[in-house]
Each structure stands twice: as C-alpha cells, then as structure tokens.
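hey so u asked for the seq, here:
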Amino acid sequence: MPTAGWYADPDGSGGLRYWDGGQWTAYVHAVPASAPWPAPAPLPKAGSPATGPLPLHPMSVADILDGIFKLLKANFRTIAVIVCVLVVPIQIVLAFLSRGTLGGHGIIQVINDPSIVSRTNRSLTTTVLQLCVELVDVLMLPFIGGAVATVVANSYLGREIGPAQALRAAAGRFWALVGGWWIHIIGELLGLLCCIVGIVPAMALFMMIAPAIVTEQLGAWQGVKRSWRLTSRRFWPTVGIMLLVAAMSSVMANVLGVVPETLGLAIGLHWGWILLALGGTVTALVVTPIAAIAATLLYFDARIRSEGFDLQVMAAGLAVSAG
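ran it, structure tokens below
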C-alpha cells in the first residue's frame, strides 16, 4: 500500500487524492494552471498601525531584522527623546574634553610639523574628567536598554507609550537593571578568562536581561536566570543573530561617525569637537537602540517558541473582545 500523501487520481481527471495510510480521505479537483490556489491561513501578527504587522509566531532572521527597523521607525521620536536625555549630554561633554587632542591643531598641521604636539600638554584633570564621564556613559547602558526595551515591548504588543512613561518604568527597575548588568559583566569576564572565544556565548546568554526585567518586573538575579533559560533553548541561533546585529551596528556606527570625525580632525579639535559631538549624537540616535530592540524581539521569539506566548496574547485579545 502507498505511504500517506497526495497522489494523482487514477481516473485521469488531473485531480489529487490524499491517502492517510488506510483510506482515501480527500480529493482536490483539477484546476486550470492560471487559477490561483487558495491562500494559506495567515500567521498571527503583533504590532500596531504605527509599526505595521509584526510576527506573533517563531521569527526568522529576516523577521528579526525587519522588526528592528520597523520598531525603530515607529518609535523613533520616543527613543530619540530617551537617547537625547541619557546619551547626548555625555557625548557633548566627551567631545568637549577631547578638544585638546593634538593640541587642538588640524591633522594636516601635525603632519607638516609634528613638534607642535610635543609642545602641548594634556592636563591630568582633563584626563581624569574624561575617564569619569566615560564611566558614567558605560553605567547608563543598562538603564538605556531598559527604557528602550519598555518602549519596544509595548509597541510590539500594540500599545504606545511616551518617553516619560518609559523612563519612569525603567527607573522603577533601576537597581535590578544595574545589578543584572554587573552580573553579566562578570560573566563575560569569566568567559574571556576561560578563552577569548568564550565571551561570545556569555554575551548571548545574558542578552535578554533588560527586556526580561522590565517586561516581567523581575529582580537582577531573576532577570539573569530568565535570560539564561530562554537563550539556552535556542542558543546557537541567538549567537548568530547577536553577531549579525553587532556587525550591522558597527558598520552603521562607522558610516555615521567617519565624516564628522574626519572633518573635526582636519580642522582641529579646538573647534572640531563640535563636529565630534554632532557625529556622536547622530550615531547614538540610530545605533544605540538597535541592540535593545534586537534583544527584545529575541526575548519574545524565545517565549513564543518555548511558552506559547503567542497563544497567550491571542487568548487575552479574545477575552477583551468578549468582555
């Protein structure tokens, strides 16, 4: 007997019959080649009118990348305010403190007369201040990630919130975000000590900390365990997407930053620091949110695959409609 599947109807009509292993159970009439086949049932979608449809089903790499730019575009004003509040002042201060680089002279002048650099001294105070500001910049990363993840998670589920609401939500989980961030830094350092390649899996395992903390209102250690649990179920795909997003972000940062940085060095950073600040601001507005958006989409994808999160969302929507 044939195995289960579709077979040409032996009467020569051109139709198809389905054999389920025991009997013929279905029949499809022949249709002209020009006739369209019935469209498959559409997959469930998330998102809002602003984002357009987003996949509420297991996501492919293309779905993740498409979702990043849809969510960034739909929420750009809100994300821009968050970045301007938390990142841009730091970029401006760092650029201002760098105005003494090469003595404030243009790179052409330095090439023609290298001795002018040796005649300029960079004060210890400036160096210490710059290091302190860079430390503040690093410490703001978990808070920025939490605020952007809050915006993105709400947008993915069809809701819209403003920057003030997102900042308040992230502030409410501030210590959890900072604690989770420090745990992930320690994990990455341990991975680096084991072997240089070991830092990559460590970064992937801790990638979903911020969206888990702000979405599920978790503490620091709970957020770390949640990220670890979700990532470990799809470890290698998560690593691949993380590396792809990191490479894409690096390219975008270089493209957006190279022109103002080159012009600033050409005219000298005595005034060219303004161009550095402008380049840093534009780069931060576009590149900084990408990692947080990717982490949030991977978080939802992992929950859809392992916990039936899509069914939970659809059931909640039906309950609201019924009410």
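Residues 137 and 281 are 13 Å apart (CA to CA). The chain has a mean pLDDT of 81.
lmk if thats what u needed
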